[in-house]
Amino acid sequence: MIISQTVGVNFTNCYLIGKKNGNAIIVDPGDEVNKIMDMILKSNVKVDKIINTHGHFDHIAANLEIKEATNAEIYIHKDDQAALIDPKKNLSVKLGKNKLVKLKKADNLITEGEIIEVEDYKFKIIHTPGHSPGSICLYDKNKGVLISGDTIFNMGIGRTDLLGSSHKMLMKSIKKKILPLPDGTEVYPGHGQTTTIKKFKNSVYKRFT
Q1: Comparing C-alpha atoms, which of 137, 124, 122 is closest to residue 173?
Q2: Cβ–Cβ contacts within 10 Å for residue 147, how many?
Q3: pLDDT tens figures, 41-56
């Protein structure tokens, strides 16, 4: 199962992935802990991993509360680890002093090629810098599923006008690591509706090249 819940001011897609009445992981718990916990409880799952596709506040803000409620460990790419504890790097400074996101360090640092398994899902970590230095996607070849974070969307690509972002790097990541995936791969982005690699190639990518 892959269940999504939209949370926070940026309408971030938080994903619960695993098997109902079994084990699961949470991807990008960006806010609204109650909504995320309701999703977990309704599915009756044990969550042991919290995966952040990158370190921006709208993807990490509920990390600690979900960790405390589930005893799950937090994972993020090493190049975005500082964003967990630095409000400037996670961009929460834009929200004002009362809403700064300053968390503890991650329990585990993700690297390119690492495998994250949960039930019958086997995700390979794809490092896709550009939107942020440590942006990642999670790809399950057998399931034909890509959790794309803010790398690609149904109608666009990740912003590159932010601290630590790079349009050149993002386009390189997309060209070399995302476009070669099978056309039928189902894409679950950090914001907005699902798409496929084929649809992204035909309706989005060519606008940026």
Answers
A1: 137
A2: 28
A3: 999 999 999 999 999 9
The model's pLDDT over 89-119, given as tens digits with 9 standing for 90+, comes to: 989 888 876 778 888 899 999 999 999 999 9
User: Which strand (E) or helix (H) includes residue 109?
Assistant: strand 108-110
Tell me how far apart the terminal alpha carbons of the chain are, to the nearest angstrom: 35
Task: Give the span between the Cα atoms of 58 and 7, in whole angstroms.
Answer: 8
Give the tens place of pLDDT for each residue, 123-138.
Answer: 999 999 999 999 999 9
Cβ-based neighbours of 26, under 8 Å, separated by 6 or more? 14, 15, 16, 17, 36, 40, 47, 49, 50, 51, 66, 70, 72
Q: CB of 30 within 8 A of CB of 61?
A: yes
Rounded distance, CA 36 to CA 113, Å?
28
Q: What is the CA radius of gyration of the chain?
A: 16
Domain range for residue 62?
2-208
Q: What is the DSSP string of 36-62?
A: HHHHHHHHT-EEEEEE-SS--HHHHTT
What's the structural domain count of the chain?
1
Q: How far is CA 7 from CA 45, 104, 112, in A?
A: 20, 21, 27
Q: Which 3 state secondary structure label does DSSP give 77?
A: strand
